[in-house]
Description:
Blueprint: E1 12-16, H1 28-36, E2 39-42, H2 45-54, E3 60-63, H3 73-81, E4 86-89, H4 102-110, E5 114-118, H5 123-129, E6 138-142, H6 148-158, E7 164-169, H7 174-185, E8 190-195, E9 203-208, H8 209-217, E10 227-231, H9 244-256, H10 259-270, H11 274-284
Parallel strand pairs: 1-4, 1-5, 2-3, 2-4, 6-7
Antiparallel strand pairs: 7-10, 8-9, 8-10
Amino acid sequence: MDQSKTAVIPATLYVVATPIGNLRDITLRALDVLAAVDVIAAEDTRTTKHLLTRYAISKTLFALHRHNESALFTKIAGLLSQGKTVAMVTDAGTPAISDPGGLIVRFVREQGFKVVPIPGPNAAVCALSVAGISNPHFLFYGFPPTSKGPRLRALANLKPHPYSLIFYEAPHRILECIADMMEVFGSDRRITFARELTKMFETIHECALGDAHAWLEADSDRRRGEFVLILAEADRPKEAELSEQVRHTLQLLMHELPLRQAVKLAAEISGESKNRLYSLALSLQPHPGS
Length: 290
């Protein structure tokens, strides 16, 4: 199939990711779709008009925001039922990811219309890629609650999770949010600040949570712009070494019994994990030729 130019499909909603800062981060496919659809639903028509003007695209726009999502159901469904094509964009990044759009996507799918994603920038993934975190598991939370009590409860609920935690936060709440994170997670947890990503004053800074407040206070410019916050997973406590007595017990049993039976009996005697004892048993077996 020739993919040199993207053709739109009638009666389809396109969910189009747009740049999070640098306008050159728009994909070629996104430009094709924005130029080809009949109308664009935009979180802020002024922001989207600026993007379209940059790429010489003229298109009918109507406003989409959190407070009018449900009111747009009938309008979008009506356009799609006429065979029209609609693109949905937010101010920055991928729609429906801590942004409007999720309700509309669900409604359109329930009505039997096609929904096509046009992938592209996402602030959380952008920040994660430069955070230097090797564990592949993470939990994206989005914006924490805006007031202290609910925010503390939300953070406390996240504390047991053994993953890196990704948040968005606004500049006017960043100091109080960091203070609450300190209260819940302690001072040793590592945090990465990613602010103004892809823009002129892009900043990426990693430190202990206990040092975060001082870093923010040291320069007022550090508190400007939208933030992605990444809390690295908590350090896992090291497992205690198996005692010499447990090792000796396992070795004696291995002389008399098949390996699996020896491990099972040693676990019953010592109360240790079968998995740990099995790993130890494998290491104690003589290697062929030794």
